[in-house]
Structures are given as C-alpha cells and as structure tokens.
Amino acid sequence: MKVQTTAQIGRSLLVSVWFLMMLAACTQDGGGSTSPAPSVPPPPVAGNPATVTLASPAQNATVPVGPVTVSFTTQFFTVGPPGQTHLHFYLDGDLVPYMFYSGAGIDADNGVLYNGVHTHFVHWKSAVSFDIFGLSSASHTVRVVLADQSHNELMNAEATKTLAFSVSQPPTGDLTLQSVLSGLNFPVGLSLAPDGRVFFNERLTGKIRIIDQQWQLVPTEFCQIAIVTSGEQGLLGLTLDPDFATNHFVYVYHSAAGPLRNRVVRYTESGGFCTNQQIILDNLPANGNHNGGIIQFGPDGKLYVVIGDAENTANAQSLTTLAGKILRINPDGSAPSDNPFFSNSNANAQKIFSLGHRNSYGFTFHPHTGHLWETENGPSDTDEINRVISGGNYGWPTVRGIVGNANFHDPILAYVSVIAPTGIIAIPENSTAYPTAYRNNLLFAAWNDGRIRRVVLSGADLTQLGSTSTAYSGGQGALLSMMLGADGYIYVSNAGGIFRVVP
C-alpha cells in the first residue's frame, strides 16, 4: 500500500510518493550493487558519441499485467552514482524525470530517485535495468536520456531513446471492477458515514473530500490540511467515529513539518466542513518511507493506528518507540488500561497493541469474529497477511514469513515474489452482493500487479488458511484502499479513481 507520480502515469496512476499503496514497502527493497564507477567519467571519444540503447521490452511489444522490466545498454558512457554521469527517464506524459544511478553503494533503495526520493512506482533492479509497477492495461511510453554530473541532458540524438509498449488486458476472474468515480487525486482512507456519504483523503494535496449518496464528488473540499509529501509521507489515513451520527468526529493521520513527524488529529464535521481541530497523537515517528498511517476503530470502540518502522529496522522490536507497531488507544489518545503493555512504565509501550511490523497499508476487523487482519509489506520478499493479536510480535526484522519460531507469530500467507499488498477487507457472512462461497472470506488488493486476491478462512474460529486465489486479475493499475459500501459491495481505489468490485 510497502507512493509518487508517473503521469502521472498517464493519469491512470497519477501521483504518488506510497499504501500504496501502498501502497512497501514497498517491496523489492533488496538488490545488489555494481562495481564503482570512476570518479571522473572519461571524456567522449571523437567520433564515438555517448549512446543509449533500449534492450527490452521490444519496441511496440505487448506485455502482461505486472512489473515491467526495462533494460538498456550504453556505449561510450558510464552510468554512475549521484554526482557523476547518470541516466534520466520519463514515464508517459510526466515531465519530471526519474534519476537512475549505478555504482558503489547503489541498490533498490537509492538506485532510482524521483524528486530526490525512492518511490514505489519504479525500482532499481540492476546496473542496467529497472522495474515499473502498477501500470494499467493501456499504452505506455518510457523515454530515457543520458545526463551529465549536473543533470544536464546530453543533446546528441544517440543519447535519447523512447520505448512504446502496451500492457495487455488480463483474463477475466471471478470479480470485475466498475468505475464509479474518476479523475481523483490519489484517493485513500475511504470511510463510509451512516448517512451514506463517503469521506476520503487526497494523499498528496492535503484535502479531505466527500462523495455524496449518489456517488458524486462534492466540489468543495471538507478540509485542507498542511502536510509534507516526500516519499511515502502525506495525508495517509482517515476513519469516522463509531458514534459519528451523533458526534460527527473525523480522525485523520497525516505527515507534518517543523519538525517532521506524523500525527493523528480529529475534526468535527459541521455542514460538510471540518471544524474544531483536536490533536489526538503528535510527534509520531516519521521518515521518507515506512510511515504506515492506516487508522480504524475496532469493534471494541478503540482506535487502532498502524505506524511503520520509519526506515529504522531496530524500531520494530523496541517497546520504547511507536515505530513498527500497531497502536490501540482511546478516542482521546490515551492508553486503555487493558492494553498488553499497559503495566510498562514507558508511555509509548502502554499504547502498543502489537510489534514487529515493517510497514502496512491496510487492516480490517472481521465482522463475524472481530479478528484484526493486516497486510504487511516485506523488503525484497515475504509480503505477509497476518492475524494480529494483543501483544503479538510479528518478527520484523528478526524473522520474515512463515518460520515456525515460537517467539513470533507467523503470517497465514507469505509471498516470495513481492506484490505490495495494500487494502484488505472481509466479506460479511450475510452478504447478498457476492456468491455464498465468498462469505467470511478476506479480499486484499496489491500495488505491484493491481490484483485482488481472495483468502478463504477455515476452522471453527476462522483463523486457518483454507485456500487462496486471484479473484480479480488486474488491469486498472496499482490498487490502494478498500471499503464496504452501503449497498453491500466492496469499493477499491487506484491512483485516479474509485471502483465497485462486482461478481
């Protein structure tokens, strides 16, 4: 949900710095490094202009949904680390370049930067290749240009190449997506009000928006919040108070400056506008990536808050920091006395519900069991689906995936190939919108391949894995937040719109 713009990818992916969404984590944070580039690039050889050639995919190729690997070669030119000669590339109509580097110390975390930060639209893969994630089933272009130490792009014709390709429409699965609202700006945190309105965040603009009961966007924003948006920062999470019909409370998680931090604030809705800002939690851990930010109320009336490890893996196992945790707090921000670490003298520990988390873009409470299910973004492997319990330790960074270590809780699912899971939701047992076999199942979305996967839970308490499959095969680009609508259907967002998930 493991978010920056790419056109912003032709407006089908819009902006992100991510769930996602996801948005990982994203994922594929692993990678190797190459031999150091010379500190001073060799001068061009007379008659031998610096040249870039696109090796794959082939020009005008049609590629399947999922990560698209673009590879290239250069001649008479060295792609080096920051401060040396390197490569720029542009996706679709986006006018802002991605900077591609290679050499000593370069890997998937720093090999491709957009506005100076790592993003989850594109990952460095090797010294001569990068992966593009979350592309919609449509035509796309990549333009690559060689650049000097000062980011000046070389002017000779051989230094620029443009690749055109198409992403195919995948086979139809059990579920399809029907567009209900388009032209949006990275909608996340979809939350249904008792009167049928839907509240959501625009992650990068700082605006909270409202959709009316007829699925029309209210022209004037509900609220405008001052945020920062580098990397995975921004307006990240939103939820409504369980007693919203009476108190009209709207809770929001966002990144703020001066100093950089995340925080949870509460507004009171009045006449369709936000009033009476109250800070619930302040000075939460923040960094360029792994900020978490998903918030929801549980069936116990407590507010649950996901915070990523803030790119410091040691945070996740320490009870003295809130990073790498799921918090459980009272609506006013205080710690409930029945929290698992409430007896700890540290004020942070008292708010912690579970630990050992890397970064999450989604969690949900199962309507039948009340269990908390969470998507977890791994690094270069082991994205997870976890059932989170009070006081549970989910292993990061000590262990990843299903390992059978009694000191940690294994996920119900772990994915070797990264998919960057984002939103997750449970289908109610009395649903009439979906086939009977789907009742009490989990559905979760993914950023990297834009698919929705189905998890059939089994056992008397629905804690075991019965089976898993792909219910929606993708085609609308990277997917973000999920919500159960007033009509019983599930709704999911991508970077530019919201869709109804239908059989």
Structure characteristics:
Neuraminidase; 38% strand; 4-stranded antiparallel beta sheet; 2 domains; 6-stranded mixed beta sheet; mainly beta; disordered N terminus; 2 helices; 34 strands; Immunoglobulin-like; 503 residues; signal
Q: How would you characterize the overall build of this protein?
A:
- This protein has helices spanning 244-247, 347-351, and strands at residues 51-56, 61-63, 68-75, 86-91, 98-100, 112-114, 122-126, 129-132, 139-147, 160-167, 176-181, 187-192, 198-202, 207-211, 223-224, 235-240, 249-256, 261-270, 273-284, 295-297, 303-307, 325-329, 352-355, 362-365, 372-376, 383-388, 413-415, 421-426, 442-446, 452-458, 464-472, 479-484, 490-494, 498-502.
- The chain has 503 residues and is mostly beta strands.
- It folds into two domains: 51-167, Immunoglobulins (Immunoglobulin-like), CATH 2.60.40; 176-502, 6 Propeller (Neuraminidase), CATH 2.120.10.
- The chain has a six-stranded mixed sheet, with no helix packed on it. Strands 1-3-8-7 form a four-stranded antiparallel sheet, with no helix packed on it.
- The longest helix is centred in the last third of the chain and has 5 residues, at 347-351.
- The protein is globular, with a radius of gyration of 23 Å.
